[in-house]
Amino acid sequence: MSWWQLMKSELRAVMSNSAVLLIIIGGCLFYSFLYPQPYLEQSPREQKIVVVNLDNTPFSRHLERMVDATPEVKIVQHVTNIDEAKQLFYHGDVSGLMIIPHDFYRDMMRNQSPVISYAGDASYFLIYSAIVQGSASAIGTLNASVSVSRLLAKGNSVLAQTKKNHAEIQLNARPVFNPSVGYINYVVPAVFIIILHQTLLISVGILGGTQHEQTKKGIQGYWLTEPVWKVISVRLLIFICIYIPMMMYYMGLCFHFYGISRLASVSNLFVFSLAFLTATASLGMVLGALVPRRELVTFLVLLSSLPLVFSAGFIWPTEFLPQWINTLMQFIPSTASILGFVKLNQMGAQMSQILDNWLELWKLAGLYLLLAYWLMVRKQKSVIDI
Amino acid sequence: MHYPFHKLLRYELSLFLYDKWLLASVTIIPAVLMLLICSIFQQGIIRDLPVAVVDMNNSTLSRRLTRAIDATEAMQVQGNYLNMQEAAQAMRGADVYMLVYIEPKFAQKVIKHESPSVDAFYNTQFILVGRTLVAQLQKVVTTLSIGASVQRNLMEGNVRKVQALGNTLPIQQQITPLYNLGSRYDQFLLSVIIPCIWQILIMVVMVLSFSAQHRRTGITFWIDRTGLSGFVAKLVVYQVIFLGMGVSFLYYLYQYLGWPMQGSWSILVTHQYLMVVATQAVASLIYFITLDPARALSFSASYVAPALAFVGITFPVNSMMIFPKIWRSLLPVTHYMQVQVTQVNYGLSAVQILPYTLHLMLFSLFFILVWLRIHMLQNSKYHDLLSFGFGTEKDPIAGKIVAHGEKQ
């Protein structure tokens, strides 16, 4: 069989395999739409809280209005005691509460630093941090204005003017790489790589598995008659050709649509993608050759998804993983790929800074290609022996 | 033909010997998954993450700030960056998670009352981590700021120390993270990741089990012979297995690890049972529509794999738009998680969580569709194909049941 004929047979095998097509076309397109859906609002806003104002002076009501005015927090109820606030909380009407103590205004005027207590439901980290952020910024602003008016009252108007803020030292914290601190920019780039990785593994694996099943039925296909190295090269080429447009769709159109930063140059992305696709497709061939039935590829890949996401380092730093997990994850192409792509595309790293990740992917590619070659040669031999 | 129910149960168990992968999927594989996911969050809190400090001032005060950052639980000052270019490079390479810049006239400005600022650039590509680091840095800077201020106030006049503090911060704040007092990540994430993996497992194992049955006898042949009771026997066997897993992970989290749990165990376990049945209903429907394990698993994958994003623990439901709200209500784990969270945290009564109970029960309606589909298959021209040519003359199921049960 010539190269050209082999290519045609392989392409026909892919196109006539409905399970593979379902994963490549259905899976990839569906996920690119479905996955970002929960995060379209980017960050949680207007989280509902209840206020227990035991002070009830114009000043404490001013504080309430300031808290309510922040984008993160919305005061939906006022109650007179803490028990009522708790009930609202249990019913899920509010996710946080704020308590303004008795004599709040008096204590403040007497320089006794009264304490505002507030609480948020920390079983939802984002809700909790929104409530903290909103309340803290309102109280901080109020603190500043009280300090300035105190200085003015002391007759220190010059000082009051020069002081931008009550604090001696200010913290000026700036978010970088994801300036809007949006959830989409945080989750989607990494998860999209996982999706491409998993679907590629499954589709290459299912193709191998299908042919293995056909072999068992006694069908002598090109995968048995052609030299293994040729089959592997053609399979690699075909899947890279299918996945390059898919990656362009994910990292081009989708990223543009969801407003995710694209700092990398197309040539760098291409060079890195080649390593990513080769390593992943090779692992897919190994999986396809290892399992006795094709659906087991999907089974294994699907079950590994959540552990892969959480050990990839973008949610939970790899510094905190036990060594054995880090070692294990080095053997999965998604680990180096996520790091590489995110650094390159979202954080604007140079190619030299992700060279390690890139080389690691090529090493994995080499390893899995050899492994796939060995497994597939063994299979061919076992069939010929019969 | 009518078989006694306990024999059908035995027949179902014998399927595990027929398919070793099926056996592994309810024993070794869940154990390995649990070990993996629990080990990932072994540490639970953020500790000693690398942070770059560019100190252009190099005074006693700026060095005190650097040491204070290093002393926090979450941060560790790393390397010696002399200028912003080097440090920015380290940020882009993700070698450090935050970059703190101390301006050249920092200490001098404090003395002159000019409110210098500390600039911190934090990596929001890692949101969870970034937020924690900023919160801790804010504490460090506030403490340093109060220290400087109290010192000056004491120097300027004879005020009492309490008043000096009062002068600095007119209003103080006390913040309580309810239900997760230590703001522990393991408590936050594990309690939702594990049920999501559990749901994936129920889906795929049910599909594998139907497909194993199909390879063994042909799926319609099996239905023809054992009828509804055979189908129920299969569901019951897996209900016991998955409920066992569910109870084990709850026990591990809320007894062994000792996380706070206010609710009732019986309510939790009942809803776990409903969750298993609900997922089984969806899995059966997907299998009987596709009739091919590979395609059935592909559909299951797109259905359950992204569940974690939709459950509403990591990202709040009240900030989702309408489509994700609809999609999440179609996932059993969503309703189960509502029950778990409200039980564990608030200990709500059975009446208060009734909406979630009803939601979970609604999924059982899918069984009607499954049954209709089975009837359709039994009457279709594929019937013989799907029963693998096992005709009336050969009865593999009866043989197995006799072989595995007592002599009739």
What does this structure look like?
The complex is a heterodimer of chains A (386) and B (408). Chain A has 386 residues and is α/β, with parallel strands linked by helices. Chain A has two domains: 3-39 and 181-385, no CATH class; 47-162, abc type-2 transporter like fold. In chain A, 66% of the residues lie in helices and 9% in strands. Chain A has 15 helices and five strands. Chain A has helices spanning 3-15, 18-34, 58-69, 82-90, 104-109, 125-153, 157-162, 183-216, 222-225, 228-258, 266-290, 295-311, 323-329, 333-346, 355-385; strands at 47-53, 73-79, 96-100, 115-121, 170-176. In chain A, helix 8 (183-216) runs parallel beside helix 11 (266-290), helix 8 (183-216) runs antiparallel to helix 14 and helix 10 (228-258) crosses helix 11 (266-290). Chain A is elongated, with a radius of gyration of 29 Å. The model of chain A has no long low-confidence stretch (mean pLDDT 89). Chain B has 408 residues and is an alpha/beta fold. Chain B has helices at residues 5-18, 20-26, 28-40, 60-71, 84-92, 106-111, 127-156, 161-168, 185-217, 219-256, 265-290, 293-304, 307-311, 322-329, 332-346, 354-362, 366-379, 383-386, 396-404, and strands spanning 49-55, 75-77, 98-102, 117-123, 172-178. In chain B, strand 1, helix 4 and strand 2 (75-77) form a beta-alpha-beta unit. Residues 389-394 and 402-408 of chain B have low confidence and may be disordered.
Secondary structure: elements and pairs:
The complex is a heterodimer of chains A (about 375) and B (about 400).
Chain A: H1 3-15, H2 18-34, E1 47-53, H3 58-69, E2 73-79, H4 82-90, E3 96-100, H5 104-109, E4 115-121, H6 125-153, H7 157-162, E5 170-176, H8 183-216, H9 222-225, H10 228-258, H11 266-290, H12 295-311, H13 323-329, H14 333-346, H15 355-385
Parallel strand pairs in A: 1-2, 1-3
Antiparallel strand pairs in A: 3-4
Chain B: H1 5-18, H2 20-26, H3 28-40, E1 49-55, H4 60-71, E2 75-77, H5 84-92, E3 98-102, H6 106-111, E4 117-123, H7 127-156, H8 161-168, E5 172-178, H9 185-217, H10 219-256, H11 265-290, H12 293-304, H13 307-311, H14 322-329, H15 332-346, H16 354-362, H17 366-379, H18 383-386, H19 396-404
Parallel strand pairs in B: 1-2, 1-3
Antiparallel strand pairs in B: 3-4
Helix pairs in contact in B: 1-2, 1-10, 1-19, 3-9, 7-8, 9-10, 9-11, 9-12, 10-11, 11-12, 11-15, 11-16, 11-17, 15-16
